């Protein structure tokens, strides 16, 4: 069985890169580059979901080194956050639409909706 890993970029990246910016402490242990994080942040829901499923499959299939497993896990976490963020935004829009509909329904057929 061939091992399947998810690479969200077309180029190879290494975990040896050290981030020297102010937020280095929060991302020092991550193998994801800022470019990869930016790519994930721009993904539509369906793409993030599909790549997340691929990352999970790669981890479930096993056969990865510890470093490869950690990278797949980090990619999966970032993709899951992206998908969850998009779902939250849709949920907020639906809640707002339902609230507006409920408000409109309360005045339907009355003189107040004509003003």
Describe the 3D structure.
The protein is an all-alpha fold. Helices cover 63% and strands 0% of the residues. It has helices at residues 24-27, 34-42, 45-61, 66-107. It is built from 4 helices and no strands. Helix 3 (45-61) packs antiparallel against helix 4 (66-107).
Taken as a percent bin, the fraction of beta residues is under 5%
Give the distance, in angstroms, between the N- and C-terminal Cα atoms: 69 Å
Q: Main β-sheet, in a few words?
A: none
Kindly provide the radius of gyration, computed on alpha-carbon positions and rounded to a whole number of angstroms. Answer: 21 Å
Helix content: 55-70%
Count of strand segments: 0
Strand and helix order: HHHH
Nearest-integer average pLDDT: 80
The assigned structural class equals: mainly alpha
Nutshell version of this structure?
By secondary structure, the chain is mainly α.
Describe the secondary structure blueprint for this structure.
Layout: H1 24-27, H2 34-42, H3 45-61, H4 66-107
Helix pairs in contact: 3-4
Main traits of this protein?
single chain; 115 residues; mainly alpha; 0% strand; elongated
């Amino acid at each position: 069985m061939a091992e399947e890993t998810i690479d969200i970029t077309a180029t190879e990246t290494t975990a040896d890169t050290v981030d020297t910016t102010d937020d280095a402490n929060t991302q020092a242990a991550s193998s994801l580059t800022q470019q990869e994080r930016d790519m994930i942040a721009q993904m539509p829901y369906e793409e993030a979901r599909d790549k997340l499923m691929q990352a999970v499959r790669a981890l479930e299939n096993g056969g990865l080194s510890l470093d490869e497993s950690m990278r797949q896990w980090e990619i999966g976490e970032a993709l899951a956050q992206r998908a969850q963020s998009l779902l939250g935004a849709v949920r907020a829009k639906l809640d707002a639409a339902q609230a507006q509909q409920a408000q409109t329904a309360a005045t339907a057929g009355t003189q107040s909706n004509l003003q």
